[in-house]
Amino acid sequence: MSSQNPNGFKTILVTGGGGYVGSALVPSLLKQGYHVKVVDVFWYGRDVFDDCNQHPQLERMELDIRDSTRLKPALDGVDAVIHLACISNDPSFELDPALGKSINYDAFAGLLQGAIDQGVKRFIYASSSSIYGVKETPDVREDAEPLPLTDYSRFKLDCERDLLAHPRVRGMERVILRPSTLCGYAPRLRLDLTVNILTIHALVNHKIRIFGGKQLRPNLHILDMVRAYHAFLEAPGAKVDREAFNVGFQNRSVEDIATLVRATLGDPTIELEYTPSNDNRSYHVNSDKVRQVLGFETRFTLEDAVRDIAAAYRAGKIPDPLNNTRLSNIKRMQELRVK
Ligand SMILES: NC(=O)c1ccc[n+]([C@@H]2O[C@H](COP(=O)([O-])OP(=O)(O)OC[C@H]3O[C@@H](n4cnc5c(N)ncnc54)[C@H](O)[C@@H]3O)[C@@H](O)[C@H]2O)c1
After folding, report:
1. What is the pTM of this model?
2. For 143-175, b where at least 16 C-beta lie within 10 A, e where not — what string?
């Protein structure tokens, strides 16, 4: 089967495709008929693509994005790049800031140049809504002044700027997505994300510890994230080229999420324990633009995410969740001692 992409895109290269997002996105791209190249160091395992690990249209390339010499031939024949690879949260970035910078920022120039040289038609960059920092404004839109508070967020913003400012792109369309915190089950699960970890604590310990609790945070179901990447592959270039889009719909406080987890699991005896926090980042992300420009609406809720994780846990798909290092970026990186 070949893809029916309206732009004629057939081959998609996903960097970091062996991570949480990739493990849901790659099977979905394959099912849509795309030929998919995954470039990853596979810190969380190679066989994360559910029933698609041996798919004939999947090419798994064990390759570090910092190795631009080997990366360039991998980009040959690629129509679109979705760039996910990175050290993807503050604590794991701060484990080794020099390593973090080398992957999250320094490697970007080589990847971008390789994509331009090989005639890639569209480059989709996974940035983050964390580039906005703390905002007093009730609604953070794409034109809000970015105020990254950590190096992880700062380098996301620097990559965005380099992508847009690149002087010689030879017609390559460039799109920036700023997703909110994701949630829900995927074959390579991350339990360092709010909804996911609160759900697992409720299931395993019968208790949810809430840090702070009042801060508003935007959330997005991972399957809507996957749908958004499809929408950005299919969108006409004129609508998305050199544009940034927030993708995050459910703005909820941590306290609200904890209550929602307890209600969704239908167990009022789950205890909520409050702990003060000095992480007061609070923001309400507005995603009207992606709705207006692409007609993109979410289909999945936070309750769906809780239910999916609970079902996977009960089916034995999340073994030893609180000790399994593959479910936590920071624990896995400490274990691998990556350089
Ligand atoms: N998960 C979220 O809530 C969220 C929210 C906003 C933005 N994002 C962004 O989306 C992207 C994907 O996030 P995720 O949750 O899937 O992250 P993840 O940590 O699960 O996956 C990252 C992947 O990148 C790979 N990788 C790391 N360094 C590499 C290197 N040098 N070369 C090749 N591969 C490398 C890892 O092996 C891993 O498979 C990231 O860029 C992240 O910043 C994620």
Report:
1. 0.97
2. ebebebebbbbbbbbbbbeebeebeebeebbbb
